[in-house]
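Subject: complex prediction, re-run

Hi both,

The earlier run crashed halfway through, so I resubmitted it with identical inputs.
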Amino acid sequence: MFWIIKIIKKFIKLLHSNVNPTEIAGGFALGSIIGLTPLFALHNILIFFLIIVLNVNIGAAFFGMLIFAIVGACTDPIAHWIGYYLLVTAGSLTPIWSSLYNMPIVPFTKFNNTVMLGSMVISLVLFVPILLGFKKFIIFYRKSLQEKVLKWKVVTIIKSTGIFKLYIRFRE
Amino acid sequence: MKLIRWKAVIPILVLTIIFVVFGIFLRDRILKGIVISTGESIFEAKVEMESFKTSLKDSSIEIKGLQIADKSDVWKNLVHIDRLAFDIRLLPLFSKKVAIDEMALENLRWQTKRATSGKLPPKKEKKINKKKEKEKKDSFASKLFESVKKKAASEIEALPVTQNLQNIEDNIKSFDAKKLVSSENLQSRQRIEDLTKGSEDKYNKYKGEINSLNVEKQAADTKVLIDDLKGLKVETIADIPKVQDAISRISTQKKSIDATVSRVTDLQKEISTQFADTKQLALEVDDLIKADYNNLLSKVKIPGVGEEGGIAKALFGKMWYDRVDKVLHYIQLARKYMPPRKEKEEKTMYPRAKGVDVVFHKKEKLPGFSIQKISLSGTTGGEGKDVKDPVTVAGLLSHLSSDQKVYGKPTGLDMKGDTAGRIYKIDGLFDHTSDIPLDMIGLGIKNFPIGELNLPQNDLLPKFKRGGYDVDSKFTVRGDELDCMLLLTIKDIIFEIEETSNELKKVINEIFESISTIELRARLYGTDGNLKTEIDSNLDNIISDKIKSIYGRKIKELEAKVKAELNARINQEKEKLMVEYNKRKEELMAIVKEKLGIVDEQKKALTAKADEYKKEIDNRKSAEQEKAKEEIKKGVEGELKKLFGN
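This time it finished cleanly. Structure:
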């Protein structure tokens, strides 16, 4: 539970920081792939690798993982439907899948599981929209919402409490 | 903006290398965990190993002390293997395919005792069950399995034979001949009552009739008449009319007496006819007593000892169904992990906890799992097994694969052992290469000691002291059709007969003392929802006959009791009837005789008197005639004298 709070804290800190929105959005989008697909999958090792090696924000990546893990739990039936269509119903794709299934390494991705394939497709399709959309959101937030949020009564109350002091400490 | 975080590249590479190195060093542990997890998922019981060693040089794996627990008896092992060794082909592993050319299994045992329970922890069990719930429950194998279970539950009864024996014992003990006889409406008793009343009525009737004849009065009248005629004599001719009149009166009286005699004689004849010879009567009553006896006997029967095959089913049914159940479980596993499919099927779907796994088949490629040859060696003995002289077995399991259509060959099993005349043989064929899958497991056992048969305890069968058994069984599933057969012969049997005071147990002991061979034939065949069973044994006839002979004696005793009771009740009444009957007959005959005597006497007296008077009349007539003659003669002489002088 604490690690969830830690991730959220870090993300709030990010929002109010000067980190490049592209880096944040990139991390968030890559994290969404891990969140939307089953965790213990081979492709996620590659995504983790990309998160570390590419110049994207790791905190945003973890935040993206968290958010889209919740979303992913709800999209599993849709993922299954998409995966079933691609693997079973679409007969024209069978030779491709058959070849992939008998190749080295590829079977370890568990692409032949309907939920896995479906969620991979969803995550890839949503990758670019998430990346661009989140980048826009960060820019908008920093420009328009940051000041207003700080003026909210709730924020004012929190400011006067020990929690805000903690928040300031974290900000620093 | 920099695209690559160069600072992180090297640490990542270093971490990856460390991870790979650790992986290589810890590969044994990791792989052991994977194998145990997979094994527990398949067998739903604990899988344990003493050691798990891999060698990267020759890609070999060696497992020592492998124990797979039996989920149906968690304190026993399904299999216990001392050593399992094989080389695994490296390249197919990269395609997630396990291909093994040759595997050796050393010292394989089964049903050995475990030191600890083989039950999985509840969390793991729950996880596996949850996974299995999502998997195909409507598969043919599951349906057939459930069908067999349902059939077994409906067929296996509590031992009906001991219940029947107990019923027989109870019936015999509670049998009350007196109650049975007294409660019955006996024909013989009824007849005796009728005859008694009948004879009484007849007696009264005939006595009445005889009395109505009033012979005494007639005798008195006769006496009066005779007295009246006492002084009457024929002294003169003038008396003759009087005497003739008397004779006429006598004649009239005689006629009346004759009529009486005739009636009495008729009555005598009637009495003689109506009161027939008591022998006839006794025979009639005896016939009715016999009829009553047979009727009562019909109520003293031996209850049936069950339907044909009932004893065999009760004694061996559970053992048979348990064996079928167990073998079907393995066939179910075979069908699950070597699933049959149609030739044209390019892919097969397997429901999983999440989604569906689609397996794509390509003929030229290797199946997901294949072992070309497994050399087996083992023994029928093992830890915790009461086997005095175990048989060493050896054999081969060939062409084990997860996709026989792709692999191209069926899986075969052939394992046998022969030690001091004791033979153990298992053979099997799992052929899923054609559209109709065929799975067959055969087991042959010869000359094994009876102690190793593990028959379930029951009230009927005493413990075996000595004996040997042979088994010839075959379990076949072709498509969705099941055909399981068993031939079990238990020979040279000596039972452990315990002394007992319990009557029922004595009977059971007597039954089994004479049995030296038991043969059982069992067959279970058909399709899901249409299974048929046949269980037959020589015990059914032997036990039925024995029960009938044992209880036959007891039944004879009961029959004798019934007969004695019936005779006691009826014979008394019968004797009474005979005596009274005879008495009445004799009495009536005596009365008739007496009456006849009286009328006879009267008749004689009257006849004598009539004769006397007739004689007197005749004498007088003669005398008068003589006198007349003399007078005429004198007269004539006188005239003549007158006429002719002297």
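Chain B has 15 helices and 16 strands.

- K.
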